[in-house]
Design brief:
Blueprint (H helix, E strand, L loop, with lengths): L2 H21 L6 H8 L20 H25 L4 H15 L7 H13 L14 H4 L2 H6 L4 H13 L5 H18 L4 H14 L16 H14 L3 H9 L5 H16 L6 H4 L4 H17 L6
Helix pairs in contact: 1-13, 1-15, 3-4, 3-8, 3-15, 4-5, 8-9, 9-10, 9-13, 11-12, 11-13, 12-13
The chain binds manganese (II) ion (MN) (2 copies).
């Protein structure tokens, strides 16, 4: 396994680990988590969704739906997107519909509204909606990053298109593109101090997402989500420390956990992910993630093969 493949797999598996770990304490306040768990640090299932141990939620399964559509289309569909062909975006919409019809364990309100709109009239985005500033488009963008590594124009076009199927809001767009570029840089080998630098520069250019002093909000509002993710990612170099601190902040803990798991997992690579967490994930999810990671990287222009 080469370095890029190890980091990409670290990102995808780290994402699923963060989802499974955080889901137990989703919508809890930090004080409630402390009272119930002390420090929440084990993948045990439960939570408001009554998950089995190791089960992931919509965050991971929506990523897999996007990844599936990208793999089906292949590099031809990606090329078409750059020529203005919306066939790939339509296929992504259809993948979200299939995902929705399979009765996922959870589905955010904005995602549901967008998927139902696409199903009703086939439109690839709704009008700008001030209520679309949730983190649902941001959370599922990982496969778009893997499939377009090394081609920033394709990355931005694909990211915005997949996002707009359900979320039409400039802060959702900015967060999706911003964290996607950060993931791309980490997959290129950005280390902790360079990552801190990158993030400091990015929030200078995107001051809405400034996170110092950290306000301690970890809601599904995309600004709160990004602030929490960047705060803990830059505070801790260690994957486990970053993830535990993130999910114990509670609220949208599966999504903040998934995104920190993705970025910190890219930084450390799959080989260094904690085994005690990796072993808890459902085997079919691990298998799908491994399959997609190889396939999506093969679509990207800077793939070594
Ligand atoms: Mn979720
Ligand atoms: Mn969530």
């Amino acid at each position: 396994m080469n370095d890029l493949h190890d980091r990409a797999l670290g990102a995808y598996l780290g994402f699923a680990i963060g989802d499974a770990l955080g889901a137990t304490v989703e919508f809890m306040r930090p004080r409630e988590i402390a009272a119930q768990y002390g420090v929440h640090r084990d993948i045990v299932g439960g939570g408001w969704l009554k998950l089995t141990r190791g089960q992931v939620t919509d965050d991971t399964t929506m990523c897999l739906a996007l990844g599936e559509a990208l793999l089906q289309g292949g590099s031809q569909a990606l090329g078409g997107l750059l020529q203005g062909d919306d066939c790939l975006v339509r296929n992504i919409g259809n993948a979200y519909v299939r995902w929705f019809k399979a009765k996922p364990v959870d589905c955010g309100n904005t995602c549901r509204r967008g998927i139902l709109r696409f199903l009703r009239d086939g439109s690839l985005q709704g009008d700008f909606n001030p209520g679309d500033g949730g983190n649902g488009a941001l959370m599922r963008n990982l496969p778009a990053v893997l499939a377009t590594l090394g081609n920033d124009r394709a990355f931005e076009k694909l990211s915005i298109a997949q996002a707009r199927l359900t979320h039409h809001h400039p802060l959702s767009d900015a967060a999706t593109v911003g964290l996607g570029r950060l993931l791309g840089s980490l997959l290129d080998g950005l280390e902790h101090s360079a990552c801190q630098h990158w993030v400091a520069q990015w929030v200078t250019e995107n001051p809405t997402f400034r996170f110092t002093p950290y306000r301690g909000y970890a809601t599904a509002y995309v600004v709160d989500t990004v602030q929490t993710v960047l705060h803990y990612l830059t505070l801790h170099v260690d994957f486990e420390a970053a993830l535990i601190a993130t999910v114990n902040q509670g609220d949208d803990a599966d999504t903040t956990g998934a995104l920190v798991g993705m970025l910190a997992g890219a930084r450390c690579g799959a080989a260094r992910l904690p085994q005690r967490w990796l072993r808890r994930l459902q085997p079919n999810i691990v298998q799908a993630i491994k399959f997609q990671t190889s396939g999506l990287l093969a679509l990207s222009p800077n793939h070594p093969n």
